[in-house]
């Protein structure tokens, strides 16, 4: 980056927040991207590694039904701090704030490596989220700083390719570590988190070397009151989403959580109005139609996207009996479709400036994927599961970058950091709701449905004889409670059961999964209607 490039951000009277940045050559943009991509690979690899090994981790910590917290805790903190990262980077510059995000992520990873319970792991994942929340939103903000609306799809494709690479490497790494009983005196899965520390050191070195982008300071007050109110508004609602099946959806504790969340959201809106331009989520941005639609679509699409990404590995490992590594490799159709469609759509957008057709097709493809998953059985062939994965990968490849482009398309440059962080906030919120709701509904239904199938199976003398065999009886010890309910905290017993005895358990799990996938398809259909009927068919500016 030359001195003249940096000077292009300044006027005679100082920095001009509305001035367009100096146009960089493709080579210069790719150099900057290389710094972003290393940091993003760190976060993306962690997500895919954890997803592929989560069942093993939950079994080891005896918290299978509480595993949603490991995902949602990360998403909650990442969601809340995303808008703050946008503001901080506007004030202090993109690079130093990005470096802080990497360091926080590494600190959380180190803590996760020594967690002793599922809830402690969730708490440390929340620390990880404090860093991870900045990695994606800041990368998208920097791309928006340096490119025109029409070019963004092309360069966002590079970032999607990073996630695709992580999707390939993650299951392999996660499967190798999760498959090791011990490694270096620690349980194998713990190295999934500890591996992030040296990777973070590498990321910091690369970012310091290549991530040089001009900075035009924007004076902001930080909306700490809004952030606190947002925590009060979001966390109780997520707690009741996760615990509602145990508490009862209309219990006193659930009603208290609803009320506390509602009060927090009301206070948050009042704080944002009072803070004006300094608000965590500036309310004036919602007067921009494209931003408003992009935020709604990010939230709506985030629910089935994260829900499916959380539930599908469970299907592959529980119903299909795959190891974490095999389950991860089985999702390669999603990765291939995602990369191919992302790169294709990015080039088409850069050439034509049109994005609505890709947005509508992407959301429609994601909805079809959920419908395919809703028809899965315990014995469905892998080729049939792969059809759903192809639809999901293609849908996400077409939809996610076009929704971000839509939200950014009419936002002033001075607000790009806050706006990009805000739309990522809504996507993360949708993902948090999706992951928590999918797993909560899954385990709410699984217990009763497994119980029904076990009751029917026990009526058959052949099943009773099999269940009473010494190996099967030992595996079932502690799983079947005296009151007739089933202990679902640890699924490891399924490996030791005769497949004929395991069938009622697997069939019950899959029956519950069908319901959650169908619910995800319904949410996807809502997003499809919004994309098809509300998003204008505009052409992106080439400037």
From TrEMBL:
Region (Disordered) location: 1-20
Regions that span the bilayer: 29-54, 66-85, 97-119, 125-146, 158-179, 191-210, 222-240, 246-269, 290-315, 327-345, 357-376, 382-404, 425-446, 509-533
UniProt-listed CDD domains: MFS_Azr1_MDR_like
Composition bias, Low complexity: 1-12
Lipid bilayer topology: Multi-pass membrane protein
Alphabetized UniProt keyword annotations: Cell membrane, Membrane, Transmembrane, Transmembrane helix, Transport
Cellular compartments per GO CC: plasma membrane
UniProt cross-references to PROSITE patterns, sorted A to Z: MFS
Pfam families for this protein: MFS_1
Record domain Major facilitator superfamily (MFS) profile: where: 32-539
Subcellular location: Cell membrane
Gene Ontology MF terms in the entry: transmembrane transporter activity
InterPro entries linked to this entry: EmrB-like, MFS, MFS_dom, MFS_trans_sf
Origin superkingdom: Bacteria
Family recorded in the similarity comment: Belongs to the major facilitator superfamily. TCR/Tet family.
Name this protein carries in UniProt: MFS transporter
Native organism: Streptomyces griseoviridis
């Amino acid at each position: 980056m030359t001195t003249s490039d940096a000077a292009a951000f300044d006027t005679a009277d100082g920095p001009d927040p509305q001035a367009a940045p100096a146009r960089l050559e493709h080579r210069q943009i790719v150099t900057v991207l290389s710094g972003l991509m290393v940091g993003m690979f760190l976060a993306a690899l962690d997500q895919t590694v954890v997803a592929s090994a989560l069942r093993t981790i939950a079994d080891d910590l005896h918290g299978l039904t509480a595993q949603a917290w490991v995902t949602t805790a990360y998403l909650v903190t990442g969601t809340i701090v995303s808008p703050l990262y946008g503001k901080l980077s506007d004030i202090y510059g993109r690079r130093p704030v990005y470096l802080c995000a990497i360091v926080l992520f590494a600190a959380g990873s180190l803590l996760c490596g020594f967690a002793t319970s599922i809830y402690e792991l969730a708490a440390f994942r929340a620390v990880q989220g404090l860093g991870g929340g900045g990695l994606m939103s800041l990368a998208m903000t920097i791309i928006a700083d340096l490119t025109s609306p029409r070019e963004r799809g092309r360069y966002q494709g590079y970032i999607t390719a990073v996630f695709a690479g992580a999707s390939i490497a993650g299951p392999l790494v996660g499967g190798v570590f999760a498959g090791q009983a011990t490694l270096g005196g620690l349980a194998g899965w713990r190295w999934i988190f500890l591996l992030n520390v040296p990777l973070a050191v590498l990321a910091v070195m690369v970012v310091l070397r290549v991530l040089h982008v001009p900075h035009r300071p924007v004076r902001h007050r930080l909306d700490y009151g809004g952030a606190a109110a947002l925590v009060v508004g979001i966390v109780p609602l997520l707690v009741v989403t996760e615990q509602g099946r145990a508490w009862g959806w209309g219990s006193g504790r659930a009603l208290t959580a609803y009320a506390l969340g509602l009060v927090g959201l009301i206070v948050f809106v009042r704080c944002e109005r009072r803070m004006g331009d300094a608000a965590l989520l500036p309310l004036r941005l919602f007067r921009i139609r494209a931003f408003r639609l992009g935020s709604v679509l990010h939230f709506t699409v985030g629910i089935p996207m994260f829900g499916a990404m959380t539930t599908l590995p469970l299907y592959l490992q529980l119903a299909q009996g795959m190891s974490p590594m095999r389950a991860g490799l089985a999702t390669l159709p999603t990765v291939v479709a995602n990369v191919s469609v992302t790169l294709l759509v990015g080039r088409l957008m850069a050439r034509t400036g049109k994005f609505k057709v890709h947005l509508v097709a992407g959301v429609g493809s994601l909805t079809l994927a959920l419908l395919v998953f809703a028809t899965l059985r315990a014995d469905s062939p892998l080729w049939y599961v792969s059809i759903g994965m192809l639809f999901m990968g293609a849908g996400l490849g077409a939809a996610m970058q076009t929704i971000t482009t839509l939200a950014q398309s009419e936002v002033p440059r001075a607000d790009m950091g806050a706006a990009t962080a805000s739309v990522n906030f809504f996507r993360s919120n949708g993902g948090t709701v999706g992951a928590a709701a999918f797993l909560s509904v899954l385990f709410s239904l699984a217990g009763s449905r497994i119980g029904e199938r076990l009751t029917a199976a026990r009526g058959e003398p052949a099943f009773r004889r099999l269940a009473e065999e010494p190996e099967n009886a030992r595996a079932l010890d502690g799983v079947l409670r005296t009151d007739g309910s089933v202990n679902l905290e640890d699924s490891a017993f399924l490996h030791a059961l005769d497949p004929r005895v395991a069938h009622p358990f697997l069939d019950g799990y899959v029956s519950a999964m069908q319901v959650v996938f169908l619910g995800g398809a319904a949410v996807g259909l809502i997003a499809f209607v919004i994309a098809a009927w509300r998003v204008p068919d505009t052409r992106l500016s080439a400037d």
